[in-house]
Amino acid sequence: MSSPIVFIDGDQGTTGLQIHERLRNRTDLRLLTLAGAERKDSRRRAEAINACDIAILCLPDAAAREAVDAIVNPAVRVIDASSAHRTRPGWTYGFPEMTRGQAERIANARRVTNPGCYPTGAIGLLRPLMEAGLIPDNYPVSIHAVSGYSGRGRAGIEEHEGECAANPPAYQVYGLELAHKHTPEIQQHAGLAQRPIFVPAYGAFRQGIVLTVPLALRLLAPDVDGARLHACLARHYAEADHVHVSPLHESGVLTHLDPRVLNGTNDMRLSVFSNIEHGQVLLSAVFDNLGKGASGAAVQNLDLMLARP
């Protein structure tokens, strides 16, 4: 039996390049990409997407929708790395560790939408705790996250690494209108009844994310504390290959979180920090925005789908 054909549409962007790099030496599949002159030819792109077994879309949202609309071959399966379909019915959310049975749903899906980088951390922390009833669905959630500048794509890389990069900002908070496109995705897939406050930022490092969610214990049930929140996360991810929960004794001696420690991997590290005196808990997630937050997650989903042709 011939190897499955995987078409990367948009393989010259930040995510697409990394996916191509992760797959280029694989012998269990055949990569299909388009030459430079063909990338903007809608007819050639339509031919390619209908000739593959699995298409990975690394495109702007509008272009991703157009690519899906161009599919007439019912055998073609799709992994969309854009945000075009993350809250759309009929698409399977591509976060295998999110909840029980999600990896199986991805393996059998025809249409998979890759999670956003920030939502991966936020949902990874919140969804298990929501499902266990430890955080009520109407809790006023606030999320703070700092990403490497590659999260901005080519614009961020040019600003910091390009020929004209002179004095790029060391740190910049954005999304001040509180309307970041990842917020509805977080709300839906974390199981929140109301919109969270999400405050993102970019730092002067290439890649990596630290995301934090503060919790006030007075707003939770009387028997919920940091140890119980940690135990829930530890149980949920006990058998996960790519999501790890730091032991409480390790978190207890940490003085800082480095967003870059898992760069180049598809791993995510979750931690729980407690201050009993003040009745406060801080949940944190550290991962590579180009790994578990993008290309690594896409390849993880691809491998699940390839196991179920």
Automatic annotation (TrEMBL):
<comment type="similarity">
    <text>Belongs to the NAGSA dehydrogenase family. Type 2 subfamily.</text>
</comment>
<dbReference type="InterPro" id="IPR036291">
    <property type="entry name" value="NAD(P)-bd_dom_sf"/>
</dbReference>
<dbReference type="InterPro" id="IPR058924">
    <property type="entry name" value="AGPR_dimerisation_dom"/>
</dbReference>
<keyword id="KW-0028">Amino-acid biosynthesis</keyword>
<keyword id="KW-0963">Cytoplasm</keyword>
<dbReference type="InterPro" id="IPR050085">
    <property type="entry name" value="AGPR"/>
</dbReference>
<keyword id="KW-0614">Plasmid</keyword>
<dbReference type="GO" id="GO:0005737">
    <property type="term" value="C:cytoplasm"/>
</dbReference>
<dbReference type="InterPro" id="IPR000534">
    <property type="entry name" value="Semialdehyde_DH_NAD-bd"/>
</dbReference>
<dbReference type="Pfam" id="PF01118">
    <property type="entry name" value="Semialdhyde_dh"/>
</dbReference>
<protein>
    <recommendedName>
        <fullName>N-acetyl-gamma-glutamyl-phosphate reductase</fullName>
        <ecNumber>1.2.1.38</ecNumber>
    </recommendedName>
</protein>
<keyword id="KW-0560">Oxidoreductase</keyword>
<feature type="domain" description="Semialdehyde dehydrogenase NAD-binding">
    <location>
        <begin position="5"/>
        <end position="106"/>
    </location>
</feature>
<keyword id="KW-0521">NADP</keyword>
<dbReference type="GO" id="GO:0051287">
    <property type="term" value="F:NAD binding"/>
</dbReference>
<feature type="active site">
    <location>
        <position position="117"/>
    </location>
</feature>
<dbReference type="Pfam" id="PF22698">
    <property type="entry name" value="Semialdhyde_dhC_1"/>
</dbReference>
<keyword id="KW-0055">Arginine biosynthesis</keyword>
<dbReference type="InterPro" id="IPR010136">
    <property type="entry name" value="AGPR_type-2"/>
</dbReference>
<dbReference type="GO" id="GO:0006526">
    <property type="term" value="P:L-arginine biosynthetic process"/>
</dbReference>
<dbReference type="GO" id="GO:0003942">
    <property type="term" value="F:N-acetyl-gamma-glutamyl-phosphate reductase activity"/>
</dbReference>
<comment type="pathway">
    <text>Amino-acid biosynthesis; L-arginine biosynthesis; N(2)-acetyl-L-ornithine from L-glutamate: step 3/4.</text>
</comment>
<comment type="function">
    <text>Catalyzes the NADPH-dependent reduction of N-acetyl-5-glutamyl phosphate to yield N-acetyl-L-glutamate 5-semialdehyde.</text>
</comment>
